[in-house]
């Protein structure tokens, strides 16, 4: 499982890093996707918070269910995000002043956190799913917060970029 997670991480990071160079023509207008994938990210954050709630009450089954939903939503986000960016011209931020600075700080930290945490989210999930409890706890103590940050800052960046579409 760890090998599969490593390979998946490398493939996903390579695709995301190169998606600006990939352009696929489509008769479908995918401009509706950012609102959907931002919502998926925000809902994933809610499920992560529920997962934390349940694990603190030692309800492992509910915790696991919440994490599976959050992971599924994050995966759906990733698929829609890549699909949008390989079929649609890039939208540049149109704001000025302090808002522009905030946007780029949030965007850059969001991207770095998302890319850096992706493999660790998978490893943490595998350790939890296979009941490697101590190894899972060790990773999840920080991976959870980075994942939550990514799930919250993504929709914020979308809302800040929305007037520019």
Description:
The protein contains 5 helices and no strands. Helix 1 packs antiparallel against helix 4 (97-129). The mean pLDDT is 94. The relative contact order is 0.16. The protein has helices at 2-18, 33-56, 60-87, 97-129, 133-161.
Mean pLDDT over all positions? 94
Helical/strand content category: mainly alpha
Gyration radius from CA atoms, angstroms? 17 Å
Portion in beta strands: under 5%
Poorly predicted regions? none
User: What is the succession of H and E elements?
Assistant: HHHHH
Topology:
Layout: H1 2-18, H2 33-56, H3 60-87, H4 97-129, H5 133-161
Helix pairs in contact: 1-4, 2-3, 2-5, 4-5
List the main descriptive attributes of the protein structure presented here.
5 helices, 165 residues, mainly alpha, globular
Task: Write a compact overview of the structure shown.
With 165 residues, the protein is mostly helical. It has helices at 2-18, 33-56, 60-87, 97-129, 133-161. The protein contains five helices and no strands.
